[in-house]
Prior knowledge:
By secondary structure, the chain is α/β, with parallel strands linked by helices. Helices cover 34% and strands 12% of the residues. Bound molecules: zinc ion.
Amino acid sequence: MTPxxxxxxxxxxxxxxxxxxxxxxxxDVEDYFQVWAFAGVVARRDWDGxxxxxxxxxxxxxxxxxxxxxxxxxxxxxxxxxxxPALLRDIAARGHEVASHGYDHAKVxxxxxxxxxxxxxxTKRLIEDASGAAVRGYxxxxxxxxxxxxxxxxxxxxxxxxxxxxxxxxxxxxxxxPDGPREPYRPAAGRDLIEAPVATAExxxxxxxxxxxxxxxxxxxxxxxxxxAAAERTLKGPVIFYFHPWEIDPDQPRIKNAPLKSRLRHxxxxxxxxxxxxxxLESRRWGRIDAALGLA
Length: 296
Ligand SMILES: [Zn+2]
């Protein structure tokens, strides 16, 4: 998994922004009860019993992007596309990229290659039908493409995906390959498909995550801004950030019985997130991942 990053297309001007995009914003469109951290206490079969908030929170996210002039890539669950096709249409109509986050948040390393192929193909179709736009990007639930799934990128290329942003090359308790490439690369021999890892920085020789997650909500804005600047300095290619619509929703119902660590991570500073994101979005020009990869 260490092919060179050379030979990749250069970022090009985005059709919607008129200049090259270095900072790519992404949103993983899933609801508060579908996250990995709660998978142990919320059964997949019970999802329809929860009060949905994903449509409202995604619309709030779209308004935030309109206010700040940002464009982004929305990786949606097929499950969401089936239930909220108008939302998917609006995302595309407002100039953002629609992309796939798998059907129902099953981790790639929990699936067989055949199950993964069916899931990724079905989700691409569902999102294209809902949005009316072509789907070229894929993000694995919980960044679950790693050393356990050497077949995954080839399958994505077979199905017609142009890129994946499914790698978080850090040490983490749930996912990650601390030695994986930090820059976009072509993971499948002889195929054009690009893997575009989310942002990391190198500080005193140590690799740290700065792509989003609980730390972004927990830390003061100045600290997160410095980390993203470090990513900008130590990456040659795109700086890819991500968050979830539920992260700007302090009023979401609390999931009971979840482990303390999961609850701390999920609920930390939800009330401050929207303002913090707004500052981040205003601090730099953010665009879609396809534009940052020169695919737009
Ligand atoms: Zn997810």
